[in-house]
Amino acid sequence: MTTLQSYVLGRWHTGTGAPTPLHDPHTEAQVAEVRSGGIEFAAVVRHAREHGVPALQKRSFAERGALLKALSGALHEKREELITVSVQNGGTTRGDAKFDIDGATGTLMAYAELASKLPPKPYLVDGEGLQLGRTARFWGQHVWTSRPGVAVHVNAFNFPAWGMLEKMACAFVAGVPVIEKPGTPTALLAWRIAQLIVEKELLPQGAYQFVAGSTGDLLDHLGPMDALAFTGSSGTGAKLKATPNLVKQNVRVNIEADSLNAAVLAPDVEAGGPTYNAFLANVVLDLTQKTGQKCTAVRRILVPRERVAEVAADLKAELARIQVGDPSASTTRMGPVASRAQGDDVRKGIERLQTVAQTITGGTQKLFERGFYVAPTLLVAKDGDAAIVHSDEVFGPCSTIVPYSGDALEAARIVQKGAGGLVSSCYSNDDAWVEAYVLAAAPWTGRIWIGNDKSVEQALAPGMALPWMLHGGPGRAGGGEELGGVRGVQFYMQRTALQGFKGLLEARFGVPQPAAAT
Whole-angstrom Cα distance, residue 297 to residue 399? Predict the structure, then answer.
């Protein structure tokens, strides 16, 4: 039996205590185990501060980016092996495995490129300077500098590669060492990536540590220069954020949590046209890619009332083409959810939705004799204002059609019932409708994807988080921000207002920031 080890204090550590099993979601066979005990987390944090911080911060932005580029290449060389591990422990299809792994290496490369374009100075200029006194002699300038702390990353089970490495990319560009903790049910892939990172000897001592299993009292040892970035449920995020030591030390916390994302079809979109076809394709993709286990997956589908029957029939027909089964088979389009517990949660969530919605296809029925399978499930809400539809995220292959009048402001009002989301998508060729929707929905949404006949054929799907655009959202979605180019790096840096003689500030701290890096 493979026991996942932690990499801490410059060496591999085999945990102690009772084992937590990891399974193959298709066969239900145990493939590995995790034992969490025996790590002195105070020493782990100290190791990162004493070795990782100076090792990274003596390097320029470009040199840190070069580390990410080398790391991306080293992992890409093992792409086929990593895909196999993902299928085995994550239940992912080959396409879903590539989505996770290529997303990870691609994000590393994107931040390597960004870092190569940053100034050679050990700081970033924030905006233009400004005159503060009677004359320009007394000047003000904002700058970003790297914080001498450690970043703890608590990652979700659904993207064991991408989730870990996109956080790491931002921290490394800032010069901050990381302690990575993967979601346990699918940790085999993250652990294999950790092994490759260590084997390649690409990173300086203390820059990267990996914790398999529980983080124990790790958060109790963080201080005011440290940071915690968490991806997962809003309930767990709230508990972590309320950790007494994090509150006492004012540790920076970034949370990316539950999100009842919405796709909105405007009344002007004609059936059979490019925008309508893209709407159908994107909704089906969100329902089935990663078996619906994506933080950006659409959970609510807003459709004009008079078109609900038409859209439901078209989506049902598209979902009927999805082959569900063994994720290693080339014909399979959707595999199982990641764990037995996840399957149970999804079925319970579907049952709750069925009290206020009609099932169009799918449901809670058992699909196969073994495996953690759930059918692609589409429902139609009987009442568009039913609280369950807007409060319960079913983190699996499930989405609900919500009827609305077709008015852009009503659509935004319904979206707002989710109390904050990562992404909403709207489909319309009516520019005035789009403007009204965007302005009303934007405060409640981290990202708005807009589809029309002029863009949909070239657009990436709304469920894809891109390194150049912000990923995060207000309220229920966690209130945090990740990625977004240099914005993701700045979470690990300190913005300081400098005030003094203009000649000094311009000479020493006034290097203009390249437009490409912003």
Answer: 9
Provide the whole-model pTM.
0.94
> Residue 398 belongs to what domain range?
261-467
Q: What's 131's domain CATH number?
A: 3.40.605.10
Q: What is the DSSP string of 288-338?
A: HGGGG--TT-EEEEEEEGGGHHHHHHHHHHHHTT--BS-TTSTT-SB---S
**How many CB atoms neighbour CB 340 within 10 A?**
15
Nearest to 5 by CA among 30, 40, 39: 39
C-alpha to C-alpha distances, 271 to 267, 379, 405, nearest whole angstrom: 10, 20, 18
8 A C-beta contact, residue 91 and residue 291 = yes
Catalytic residue selected from 170, 180, 295, 398: 295
> How does pLDDT run across 206-262, given as a tens digit for each residue?
999 999 999 999 999 999 999 999 999 888 999 999 999 999 999 999 999 989 999
Q: Is 398 a catalytic residue?
A: no
Residues 84 and 172 grouped into a single domain? yes
Count of the separate structural domains present in the chain = 2
CA dihedral over 6, 8, 12, 13, signed as positive or negative: negative
Q: What are phi and psi of 325, to 5 degrees?
A: 160, -150
Q: What is the mean pLDDT of each run of 10 residues along the chain (518 residues)?
A: 94 94 97 94 98 97 97 97 97 97 97 96 92 93 96 96 97 98 97 96 96 95 98 91 96 94 97 97 97 96 97 98 96 96 96 97 94 97 93 95 97 96 97 98 97 94 94 94 96 96 89 44
Catalytic one of 166, 170, 180, 256? 256
Alpha carbon 308 to its chain's center = 31
Q: Amino acid letter at 82? A: L
- For the beta carbon of residue 302, count every other beta carbon within 10 angstroms: 25
Q: What share of the chain is helix, strand, coil (3-state, %, to 5)?
A: 40, 25, 35
65, 112 Cβ separation under 8 angstroms: yes
Q: Quick one: 300 and 442 in the same domain?
A: yes
